[in-house]
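Just scan my protein:

——
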Amino acid sequence: MPDFKIAVDAMGSDHAPAVEIEGAIEAAALFGIPIVLVGQEERIRSCLEKHDTSGLSLEIVHASEVITMDESAATAARKKKDSSIRVAARLMREARVSGVVSAGNTGAVMATVKMVLGTLPVVDRPALSTVLPTQKAKPAILLDVGANVDCKPHHLEQFAVMGDIYSRAIFGIRRPRVGLLSIGEEDSKGNELTKEAFKSLKHAPINFIGNVEGRDIFKGEIDVIVCDGFTGNVALKLSEGLIETFATMLRQELEKTIAAKVGYILSERAFRAFRRRLDYSEYGGAPLLGMKGITIVCHGRSNANAIKNAIRVAHDFCKHDVNRIIETEFTKFGITKTAGATQ
């Protein structure tokens, strides 16, 4: 099996480079994944010296510039030619690494990777996908969650097929159930985009089950939920806020009385398991589907566990050759770029 090497943008997160380095060390130790840390070499080495890295495959590639969270994505991607994410993307273009993980400015990461590598020849637009916990054993994939604010029906069809491939390749679901996020289950519900997309998805080479509502996302009955990036980003941020609020409120209630405290102590293991199921860091980052090369985008506030799991997800995408499957299936089913679309 090929030895897939993953580049980590070590300067991306709110707590860089400490979080990225800790996550990279954990991934290298637990999974045996060779990792390239990209960023300001002196800062990376200074942080690495605090850890025992003997026997681990860790390499450093210097990048002098850092893109901050408050910078304009387009401007930073264009002007900062030696930023850590741009250097990491170049390493992937040159086939020196197989995938990239970054917890940096999401817009800048997407713009930079698209500028350096471009999209797959068969894909109009890349889609940012995320994994959400559900009531069932398997999580659900939601896409797009922010890469494309405005979409056309053809884009949603491509997102649906890429999400279907993601679910099959990574989660092993033989025939994923794909739903279109709308304001009602009936075919006639929704805006012009969802109504037209519904017609396309009925004929797409996927197990399309129709419209689904926001309340259905976490039930576990749907494996892939498709929407435009504006709707998806709102749904994602609302979900994250709700999960954090629910966990906080539950802890507050458990701490109110002696009886509740005793109950909490007795059920602490179950409560930890519950928090783990809701913890975004367990699912790694958000794969950017449809790009040349593998790119995983993480929260700016990611912890080491999130970085570790994002590296694992990037490695899984490489191992399962997801991009080749996307190209093969798009070509097989005649799903092509629209006229005038650019990479």
